[in-house]
């Protein structure tokens, strides 16, 4: 059976936005993704904008109030916790080889408050000394840079390229140099402790 079309060719007609539908959208999103309060608010408001673009003629201001109520309800139920989200996200980014300044920027972009960001970064720094150096080492391992290259000749030929990759990832010159000049990855890890 074909659905009736409305709006631009190929788009489905808009389903009406209701408080219950927004709550279902939030639950479906939170089942798949961890989120901050602000990020969930952005997701719900984006869904409202999409519905309006598809021809829903409801009140966008009322939908924004409903979205805020849904965010409050999800927080009250314990599905949203910015401090826990910030801590988990910071650890994930660190394992992927991101420096602290990139972690701070990522959390801020996701709508996490400054206090929660600083608490997450402080907890991360307390867990592992030389946090940025360890992140640089993890980044180099993932990308097979410096001491993780197959041969010394390849390593020498790609030194500038490796340095540029670490700089683009947000690491300082000193951190990148320490990782790339280490004869083995174990020496960088021992040096960072």
Explain what the structure shows.
The protein has 193 residues and is mainly alpha-helical. Helices cover 68% and strands 0% of the residues. The mean pLDDT is 89.
Count of strand segments: 0
Which consecutive residue ranges, at least 5 long each, have pLDDT under 50? none
Please trace the helix and strand order, writing H or E for each element. Answer: HHHHHHHHHHH
Distance separating the two termini = 65 Å
Shape: elongated
Mean of pLDDT: 89
- Count of helices? 11
Largest sheet: none
- State the helicity in percent bands: 55-70%
Strand content: under 5%
Write a brief structural summary.
68% of the residues lie in helices and 0% in strands. It is mostly helical and 193 residues long. α1 (19-32) packs across α3 and α5 packs antiparallel against α6.
Task: List its traits.
single chain, 193 residues, mainly alpha, 11 helices
Helix and strand arrangement:
Blueprint (H helix, E strand, L loop, with lengths): L18 H14 L4 H17 L6 H17 L5 H14 L4 H10 L4 H14 L3 H13 L8 H6 L1 H10 L4 H9 L3 H8 L1
């Amino acid at each position: 059976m074909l659905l009736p079309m409305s709006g631009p060719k190929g788009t489905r007609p808009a389903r009406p936005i209701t408080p219950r539908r927004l709550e279902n959208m939030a639950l479906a999103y939170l089942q798949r993704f961890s989120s901050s309060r602000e990020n969930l608010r952005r997701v719900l408001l984006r869904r409202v904008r999409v519905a309006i673009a598809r021809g829903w003629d409801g009140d966008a201001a009322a939908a924004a109030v409903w979205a805020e109520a849904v965010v409050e309800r999800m927080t009250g139920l314990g599905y949203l916790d910015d401090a826990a989200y910030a801590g988990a996200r910071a650890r994930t980014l660190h394992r992927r080889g991101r420096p602290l300044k990139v972690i701070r920027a990522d959390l801020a972009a996701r709508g996490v408050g400054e206090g929660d960001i600083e608490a997450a970064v402080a907890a991360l720094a307390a867990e592992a000394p030389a946090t940025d150096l360890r992140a640089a080492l993890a980044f180099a391992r993932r990308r097979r840079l410096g001491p993780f290259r197959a041969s010394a000749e390849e390593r020498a030929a790609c030194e500038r390229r490796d340095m540029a990759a670490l700089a683009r990832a947000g690491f300082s010159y000193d951190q990148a140099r320490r990782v790339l000049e280490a004869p083995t990855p174990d020496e960088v890890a021992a040096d960072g402790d």
